């Protein structure tokens, strides 16, 4: 991905903060569109192709969590970061449940935000440009990790980037323990509490996707991690 052509959707109802963020990102050669509420942001997303979305949680007309879920209906893979004044664990978990790639609590450093944006885009771009078409058989399922598709009885389940990354790690360690810290550092680059809770959410999603074959289990291995058993 050419970083000079990266296009960012920024949804922030604080116009002063939004303008500052937009100016900073534009100065760093990220094409950035600012929207002051969730409804306008959704309209903008429908009209343009964005490489990443930055969403404020508390916005008029449509909050950031709702906006994220609407965006996921349109594009399951576009990464996004939540911005919030809240630091409650429940809000963080809800954000990751909505499919967030990262989460920042105000006030935050613009330099750190830029670092996280580039880290997410590098990871996403690396996954999309992989020349190896790795396909795994999981019981009655077939998982194409490059296309991020899980197939069952001719039905395709499109996975998000993080769902696909986590399932691929589980497949590479099938019937063996996938160490929790290894998965966190590989996918999230940090084994923090919030990232660990996020991974728990994604494990629950993967169990739901694989539930039609009773021979498949994803077990919690206490104090160690997870085990995909087929």
In brief, what are we looking at here?
This protein is of the alpha/beta class and 230 residues long.
What does this structure look like?
This protein is α/β, with parallel strands linked by helices and 230 residues long. It has 2 domains: 3-128, 3-Layer(aba) Sandwich (Rossmann fold); 135-229, Orthogonal Bundle (Arc Repressor Mutant, subunit A). The protein is built from 8 helices and 12 strands. Helix 1 links the parallel strand 1 and strand 2 (31-35). Helix 2 (38-47) runs parallel beside helix 3 and helix 6 packs across helix 8 (193-209). It starts with 6 loop residues before the first strand and ends with a strand.
Q: Work out the radius of gyration.
A: 18 Å
CATH fold assignment of the largest domain: Rossmann fold
Please, what is the CATH homologous superfamily of the largest domain?
Answer: Response regulator
**How many domains in all?**
2
Q: End-to-end distance, in Å?
A: 37 Å
Strand order of the largest sheet: 2-1-3-4-5
């Amino acid at each position: 991905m050419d970083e000079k052509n990266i296009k960012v959707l920024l949804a922030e109802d604080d116009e002063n903060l939004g303008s500052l963020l937009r100016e900073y990102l534009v100065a760093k050669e990220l094409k950035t569109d600012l929207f002051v509420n969730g409804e306008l942001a959704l309209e903008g997303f429908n009209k343009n192709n964005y490489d990443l979305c930055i969403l404020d949680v508390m916005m008029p007309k449509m909050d950031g969590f709702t906006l994220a879920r609407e965006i996921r209906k349109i594009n399951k893979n576009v990464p996004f970061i939540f911005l919030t004044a809240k630091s409650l664990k429940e809000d963080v978990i809800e954000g990751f449940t909505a499919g967030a790639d990262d989460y920042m609590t105000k006030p935050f450093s613009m330099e750190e935000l830029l670092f996280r944006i580039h880290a997410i885009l590098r990871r996403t771009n690396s996954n999309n440009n992989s020349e190896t078409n790795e396909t795994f058989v999981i019981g009655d399922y077939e998982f194409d990790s490059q296309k991020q598709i899980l197939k069952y009885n001719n039905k395709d389940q499109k996975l998000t980037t993080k769902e696909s990354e986590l399932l691929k790690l589980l497949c590479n360690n099938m019937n063996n323990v996938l160490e929790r810290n290894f998965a966190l550092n590989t996918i999230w680059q940090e084994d923090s509490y919030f990232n660990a809770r996020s991974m728990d959410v994604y494990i629950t999603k993967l169990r739901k996707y694989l539930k039609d074959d009773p021979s498949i289990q994803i077990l919690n291995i206490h104090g160690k991690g997870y085990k995909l058993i087929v």
